[in-house]
Each structure stands twice: as C-alpha cells, then as structure tokens.
Design goal:
10 helices; C-N_Hydrolase; alpha/beta; 292 residues
C-alpha cells in the first residue's frame, strides 16, 4: 500500500467553504498520488476556531469549545472525502466534548465504505494537563481494516512503550503529533521509531507545522512527516522509509509492504516483538552492587 502522512499548516479561515476547499485539495493531492491511507496531525482541527473570530481563536478555553462544536460537520466532510476517493483517512485530532468531565483529544478514523471510529489520547502532556485541562479519553483500539491492523498513538502516547506493546498486533501504528520545538519533534520521532523497532511494524508520524499568532494553543509548531520501520530485513538500514523536509508543508509518501512486516517478525536478524516477554522477570529485581 502507499501511505501519505502530512506536515500540515494551519490557516486563518473566513468561511466553512474555505475549509472544505482546503481539505478537498489536500486529500485529492494524496489520493491522486495513489495513497490509500492518509494521516493528518494532532490538533490540526484547531484552525476551525478562526471561524468564530479572533477573540475566540485567541482564547484557549473558547477555542477548544468552538472546535468541538464543529465536529459533526468535520465528520460529514471527511466521510464524504473518504468515500469519494476510496481511501482511509485519519483526520486531524481535535478537542471533543463527549460526556467526559473535560474535552478529550480525539482523532477520527474514516473508512472508504463510510464507516468511522476514533482513538482518544491516553496520556496528557504538561501543557494539556496544566493549561488546557484536556482529559484522557476512551481506551486504545486496534482497527481491523482492508489495509491490515492499524493502531493510533497520539503524539505523547507514542513515547510510552507499554501503550505500543498493547498494539503489538498492529501492522501500522499512526502517530499524529503537534510539537512546539525541535526537541519535541525528536521526542515523538524517537518514540515512533522505537515502537517500530519493538513491535517490528511500521509507524507513520504526521506533524503540525508553522506559526499562528492568532492562537494560544497552537502558536508555534515544528516537525515533518515520517514513516519508519525496524532497521532489519526488508527495510532500510536506518529504519527510515520516508521523511519530509523540516517545517515544509505537504505530504510525505511511502510504500508499505505487509509481507515485509510479517517476514521480519518471523525471521528478522533480531526478534524484539517475540522476545519482549523475556525482559519482564529480569526487570522485576535490580541488585544494588557497591563498586568503588
């Protein structure tokens, strides 16, 4: 299959039609290149707050609520695009009110047949906890698709190996991200590459890019798209299948061969996924050994 992962820049929107046109262009471009799976980044939906004006877009709490209120229209748009192009789309994540105490960070996953499900972020960053007051959402899910089994670890979630291990049956793990600084981008990228190594699978990282003076939430963003696998048989020796140019908006494309994933899991130079359980008893006890 061919996957397309976005380095996505936010725009100031004066109308809903402008947003529809933008998403149509992005999706049409990727589908036109033969992509069957499209991945948008974390908090890419925050540009929708501009539809309610500068006062709302510039206020953290009001912008969160404004974006959440647009989710039904966003759902309908992405459903139409996925069906029209016969592709899978992981939509940009958004703060969503859904009966929780506080909004959750949710990425919706759209199928070409019209189906839709979602993945909520599990572990909040400091900014989400201390400033946004975004809450952890529902459990991890494994999506069984025509392209294989697919999991989603939203940004910070990708830095936690046990969350990755919970998705050990996934052929692909999608990692939509939003990082302010270069160091944040590399934290998520290192996490994504580590999950690919541990699970002997492919991880697909999308990034928000660009500066937005109108927003308190997503004012500075650094990153690019990347597709990673285990540096082993059937994969590049660096583990990097594809990567974009830092902070340059656009799609990054990669061909992913499910048989290569199956082969490296069965007969790789190393078998991290199979040998995972061997570390557990050895990690239970650490002996303190004085050394002078």
């Amino acid at each position: 299959m061919k996957v397309a992962t976005a380095a996505y820049n936010l725009d100031w929107l004066d109308s809903w039609a402008q947003y529809e046109d933008k998403l149509d262009r992005w999706v049409s471009e990727a589908a036109g290149q033969g992509a069957e799976l499209l991945v948008f980044p974390e908090y890419g939906a925050m540009e929708l707050s501009t539809l309610d004006g500068a006062d709302v877009a510039g206020d953290l709490e009001r912008s969160i609520r404004a974006v959440s209120d647009r989710m039904e229209d966003v759902h309908n748009l992405h459903t139409r695009l996925a069906q029209a192009h016969k592709i899978y789309i992981l939509g940009a994540s958004a703060p969503v009110n859904d009966g929780f105490r506080r909004p959750v960070n949710r990425a919706a996953f759209y199928a070409p047949g019209g189906g839709c499900d979602h993945q909520d972020k599990q572990i909040m960053t400091r900014f989400e906890r201390e400033e946004w007051d975004i809450a952890p959402g529902g459990p991890l899910k494994l999506f069984d698709t025509e392209l294989g089994k697919i999991g989603v670890l939203i940004c910070y979630d990708g830095e936690f190996p046990l969350l990755g291990r919970a998705l050990q049956e996934a052929d692909l793990i999608l990692v939509p991200s939003c990082t302010e600084a270069l160091s944040g981008y590399w934290r998520v990228r290192i996490g994504a590459m580590s999950r690919a190594l541990e699970n002997q699978c492919v991880t697909v990282m999308a990034s928000l890019v660009g500066n937005n003076d109108w927003s308190e939430a997503v004012d500075k963003n650094t990153g690019t798209g990347g597709v990673f696998g285990p540096p082993d048989k059937g994969f590049p020796q660096t583990g990097v299948l594809a990567e974009g140019t830092l902070n340059q908006p656009g799609w990054v494309f990669a061909d992913v061969d499910l048989s290569a994933i199956a082969n490296v899991r069965a007969d790789g130079h190393v078998l991290n996924r199979t040998h995972w359980h061997e570390q557990l008893p050895r990690a239970e006890t650490v002996i303190i050994s004085p050394l002078s």
